[in-house]
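=== RUN LOG ===
request id: a7f3
mode: sequence -> structure
chains: 1
length: 353
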Amino acid sequence: MKLWLRTREIEKKGIATDVNPDHISLTQMRTALNALPIGVVIYDAGGNEWWLNRAAHAVVDQQRGHQDMAHTMTSLSNKALHGRTSTVHVDVDGPPGQTLEIRSVSLINGGALLMIEDVTERIITDRVRTDFVANISHELKTPVGALALLAETIAGEADEPDSDIERLAKRMVEESHRVARIIDDLLELAKIEFDGVADQAPVNIQTILSEAVGRVNAVAVANKIFISSVPIDTDIVCHGDARQLVSAITNLCENAVKYSNAGAQVDVAVTRESGYVTISVADRGIGIEPEHLDRVFERFYRVDQARSRQTGGTGLGLAIVRHVAANHGGEVNVVSTPGEGSTFSLRLPMARG
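=== RESULT ===
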């Protein structure tokens, strides 16, 4: 993108087209961008539209006179000019009606870029899938709860302690509770995927961090694991959904506790740099082999099936974290050394004054 801002000055002077060591001309770049199926709009450092590709022109021409679209594009470009990356979905008039995804990014030396993509079919497919998962999960909650209650009753009325009936009933209780946790996580993931960031507001990082650690602390203490959280500045704020962010950090802390041995310590730290805040959760557990690192954020992916079942993992916690990060224009990463532990980092854009 830096290249584009340089070519603008060159074009004004009319003295050259080759602008980098690879000798890519301004015409070639325009041709390439015009061939893209997504719209591209480039703004200069003053917030003025500088250039649109063909796909963007088609969208703008179709929506000319509709203030919602113009307001959204102006708002996103202004945010990008101040260093805030954003993604929104906009329902536009037809025929046919469309859902457009508009993403904004900041350019290196000033200016902003918007990418406009028609995601109508994807949104419809995602909603059908999300509704299906949510409906099935709701339908399963009641019978699973009833099974757990029946198993608890059988276990409590067994004639002999440690009898086969009592052991089997207790196993049924454990498995019922595990399925219930999976259902809860499926519903949480479906809500996060479907709603995006519906309730966006200033969120104090210290507040949500304290709440997340508090939710996990009882389990950590029961397993003789100490969670260390260093006090942070109270003025670190990001824009987003506090409930989702608490859920993401809670899942990272729970994951660290599950894969730590008794007597270990889990370190929670917060750093900020270049307009971003990073929340890191480090454990001294079993670590993750390199071949698994690219897949740990997939739903239901487990590095160690046996240990996941033993610790009560659902295989959905890290998928929830990934979707929360994406909803907030951030990212989640992991660094791990087998036998030494793992560090998961949630990076989010900070709120600008």
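=== NOTES ===
Residues 120-156 form the longest helix (37 residues).
Residues 197-353 form a domain with the Heat Shock Protein 90 fold (CATH 3.30.565.10).
=== END ===
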